[in-house]
Amino acid sequence: MYQYEIFQFEQIFLWDVKSDDEVFNENASHRHIECEILYMIDGEVELQLDGHVYHIVSDSLLLMPPDCHHHWKWPSERISHRMSIHFLLDLLNEEEMGFFQNLLIKPIHLLNGSLHNLDFYVKAVAECFLMETSLQKITLKSRVVSLLSQIHYLLYAKAVKPVVLDERIRKVIVYIGDNLQEDISLNDLSDRFAITKNHLNFLFHNNVGMPIKKYLTAKRLGYARQEVQCGARLTEAAYQAGFNDYSSFYRAHKSFYGSAPSGMLVESNKSIKS
Prior knowledge:
Layout: E1 2-9, E2 12-19, E3 35-42, E4 44-49, E5 52-57, E6 60-64, E7 70-73, E8 80-87, H1 94-100, E9 108-110, H2 118-127, H3 133-156, H4 167-178, H5 186-193, H6 197-208, H7 212-229, H8 234-240, H9 246-257, H10 263-268
Antiparallel strand pairs: 1-2, 2-8, 3-6, 3-8, 4-5, 4-7, 6-9
Helix pairs in contact: 2-3, 7-8
């Protein structure tokens, strides 16, 4: 079953879309005058966008400029959940438009959304539609601009690499996402996907911008963070994310974030202040 909710306030639209294994088979090509920020919470989709194919996987974000011709292709027997934020460029004032114009030239696809707090910013926008109208008017635009600011920061300050995934690497990423609790190694992936270890690591690094081992750790940390936000204890979240013990989870978190995992508990209790 395909279910969706549409929320609208002035120039901003939010689509919250879910489907079970009876996948929505809407393959019609279309374009729209709004910018779209799509965050894939769970699932995958192939998107043909102005001559390029983008493989959108779980925990990734795609920013589409206005008037991009695109065509969706959903895999069969795959549950999916995504949020899409549509907004007109009129939302931005002249200064903001000048600052963000480089984001609005071509599509931008970013992996590991939760690792870079993109899920936090998307959910902050969605939260606005639960507010009373007067507060919504004050808050909604600022949160969309905050999301754009985070994307800009990731691209230009931290040099996070946008991706257009090779089909083989898409399959590896989907497999990793579906099997985080398993003991995944480069040898296993090489055998499973019939690609030599060196070539697989080269392709993966070239597509994703990091080695497979680092990506796997980042993915597990992002999953653990989401579990904590949903109320899980740290030890439980670490296990659910595929860490063998809390000490390995602690070391990974310290290495990536420079802080102990206990910071997740503080973060999960924070509300966004605009």
